[in-house]
Amino acid sequence: MERLLFSETENSWSILNILEHIVLSEEASLAYVLKKTSVVADLKPISVKSWLKIWLMKLVLQFKVKYKAPKHVDPIKSTITDIKELTLRWENSRDVLYDISQLSPRILEKGILKHPYAGMLNFSQLLVFFETHFEHHLVQINHLVELDQQQLGVRLSPIRVK
Which domain holds residue 87? Predict the structure, then answer.
């Protein structure tokens, strides 16, 4: 557990903070989607501009540029100390994501998530965001693992996702 609390500087995120941020982000996104899809008549089609924005966001997140997380998904004041709690919350989110995926394609093609930078996203774009966001933070996690290993004098392979 101590390894998960390692951070580069006092005010930077630890691995546990990064994981919590990912979970918070997905929980908040899915809560918004559930609220939005509860009133189908209010759903609007997405624009071509939203596809451009999501692909631009995907491109930008591939770089090691830091962005300020929105306050509601910033874990810096976290009291989470247990990876098991985060794992359960993430599994819960994945169950909700699966339930949403079972909605009518007519609903899923509409704008169901308002992303702070990319604007309104449909379900496919939501999945692109989740994947890109995770990959962006995986780079940070691997960096922290590498720094921690250097301090311990050990060397392990980076985490990879297929």
Answer: 2-152
